[in-house]
């Protein structure tokens, strides 16, 4: 579904991606981990076409460019539009397609329900929702058009561990029922275990380790070990 071959990207003289090769199969949930500055966001931006890779190839569903209509995105911090009520945030793309406002609102309410928010939240503004509810609303927006590919950028950042667990479980359930292909960026190992079929660890511009979630425990890769144990000592520099 998503294939990257030897993707390079530098900013000025700074090599961020130095030959990334990665495959995500249809319906698979890939989680990308790696230290701060490892290039996780740049990688996603290259796939989305927001940043042009210097060399290498990226194909999504056999095409060199991702089709905007086919992907959803949950941004870090939910990134809702403050000036729009929750339902308009969720139905944002539907409102641009010319369907009636009533129809768009019905769709928004159905999606809000799917993420555990009752209909009375539809007319509220994002600032009136708690952080966890905003994250749910962001998730509702990401799935609103039933996209075949969804990107999750640090979906649990800023949430307490219980709410993080709830969001992880929702993400897993929803992507499974939609059959969507997903790429998630996270620092949160609990998310990795809850969401991932496959894990890719970025380090020094390359995929340092990749494997199934179940293979993490048996790995002796020192970079992966340092990351999952949150150790200050190891091959990954802590001055970044
Ligand atoms: N537009 C840009 N111009 C210059 N440098 C950039 C640009 N975008 C990213 N970088 C650099 O690329 C490197 C990787 O950044 P990126 O945001 O992908 O890291 P990350 O792995 O997502 O980190 P974090 O976990 O902290 O979010 C950083 O050193 C960053 O400064």
Fold and architecture overview:
The chain has a domain at 1-70 and 181-239: P-loop containing nucleotide triphosphate hydrolases (Rossmann fold). The protein has helices at 40-48, 86-90, 92-95, 101-114, 131-143, 161-178, 189-195, 222-229; strands at residues 2-11, 14-24, 29-33, 55-60, 71-74, 149-153, 181-185, 198-203, 206-212. The longest helix is centred in the C-terminal third of the chain and has 18 residues, at 161-178. The relative contact order is 0.17. The two termini are 33 Å apart. By secondary structure, it is an alpha/beta fold. The model has no long low-confidence stretch (mean pLDDT 91). The chain binds adenosine-5'-triphosphate.
